[in-house]
Write a structure and sequence with these properties.
42% of the residues lie in helices and 21% in strands. The chain contains ten helices and eleven strands. The chain is globular. The two termini are 32 Å apart.
Amino acid sequence: MSLAVVVLTYNEALHIGRALDSIRGIATEVFVIDSGSTDATVDIAETRGATVLIHPFVTQAQQFQWALDNAPIQAEWVMRLDADEVVEPDLAGEIRRELPRLPTDVVGINLDRKHIFMNRWVRHGGRYPLRMLRIWRRGFGRIEQRWMDEHIVVWGGRTVTFTGGFADHNLNDLTYFTEKHNKYATREAIDVLNRRLGLFQLDHALTREGTSRQAALKRWSKERIYNRIPFTVSSTLYFLWRYVFQLGFLDGRSGLVYHFLQGWWYRFLVGAKLMELEAAIANLNDREEILAELAKRTGYSLEQLASLERT
């Protein structure tokens, strides 16, 4: 078995050691792509034997694709791992045991990710399992070029699912959580606005055949149904769907905090930011003027806003 693990980092000293320790027994190559950390991230990664490459950050998707194109990956299989994720021992054993046995027509492996919030597993509200494609044969996969919600897509064969423990467990506090989701909301608002106006190229690579069916269905539902409903209504309905009908209330008080912030506040914030951006460019007709106004309002440069066209 040969497996290369790729991790993107920026000031992840709190998490990177734990992430790399969790793959110690399965990764034959580890590449950490850092975008200028000012903490001990790089030192921790190098101490644990990772190859660290430095590259300036534009979007998560572009950073990861740069890694696939430029890191000296030799392994047969490649894995995407976030710095705050953990491969639990049972999944590590499943990968070590099953990966060498897979027939050649299997080109991708889905993992069932669980979310840990305020040190508790969010089991309900449609949050488990979050099935996503994270391991693929080298040369048979790439990452979508999108501002938000990018997925690995594969071709040339079929996918299977490993069911061992795979956890997203960020150790930062609620201030970090809300600040991160505020930034996510800006990027998602740009993404929705782009789909409406066609300002720059949009990657439509996600299909049920090329990634997990769950991810493809969620993307279709969001773009074809959810985003066409007024956000004042859709965010509330989405929260009620998760918290009541998908039993999110069973996750306790910390679950209420999570489902409210991630399932209502965040979705409402995306809609509000989209409304603000649409009002700001309502009287503009020239594409360059629109992009310049968006850059001024969001903090993303004109070069960044147009960069996906050249990817």
